[in-house]
Each structure stands twice: as C-alpha cells, then as structure tokens.
Amino acid sequence: MKTNQLHKDFIEAVNFVNDYTNPLPADILLKLYAYFKIANRNFSHPGSRTPLINAFKANALIQAKNVNIEEAMEKYIALVNKEIRNPHK
Q1: Measured between alpha carbons, how far is 57 from 71 in angstroms, rounded to an integer?
Q2: Counting C-beta atoms within 10 Å of the first and last residue's C-beta, which end of the chain has fewer, N or C?
C-alpha cells in the first residue's frame, strides 16, 4: 500500500474508532492502543492513574514491540475492519 494511502486509511480508521459508541472488548482496545502508539511514534509510558491499566497497556506495547510504523498502521486498519466494522466475517 502506498504510504499516503496508508496514512489516509489509518486516519480514517482512527476516526471511525473515535466515533464508535458501542463497547469493545478489552483485548481489542489494547491492541488498538499499542498499534496507535507505535504508528504515531509515541513511546511514552501509559498515563493512566490506575496501575493495573498501565500494566495492561505496557504489556500490549511489549507484545507489539517488533512491529514497525507501517505495519502498526496496517494492523490497526485490519483490526478495525475485522473486529469492529465487519465482526461476523
């Protein structure tokens, strides 16, 4: 996928998730969190006031540590398409 199209598709997927109002499973949210952070080159520590939430977020980032920026965007888009837009396919 061309880089410009990838960025456009990624931003569109992020906006879709931001506007989504139904609850999502925690494992999907954590994967989205990790891919989003990597895609945006944001490697700061999780900022929750709840230590357990920080631990889960840190674990999600550790699990995705070998994913590069473009892969993170692709994985984010694929996860949104598979689990949120078309969950029964």
Answers
A1: 19
A2: C
Q: What is the tens place of the pLDDT at every residue in 60-85?
A: 999 999 999 999 999 999 999 999 99
Q: What is the torsional sign of CA 70, 75, 77, 78?
A: positive
Q: Give dist(CA 16, CA 11) in Å, integer.
A: 9
CB count within 10 Å of CB 53 equals 14
How many angstroms separate the CA atoms of 9 and 76, rounded? Answer: 10
- What is the set of domains in the chain, with CATH numbers? 3-85 (1.20.80.10)
Q: Which of 8, 4, 57 is nearest to 35 (CA)?
A: 57
DSSP state letter for 82? I
Q: How many CB atoms lie within 10 A of CB 87?
A: 9
Helix residue ranges, H only, 1-89: 3-19, 26-39, 51-63, 69-79
Tokens in use for 80? Answer: 């949104």
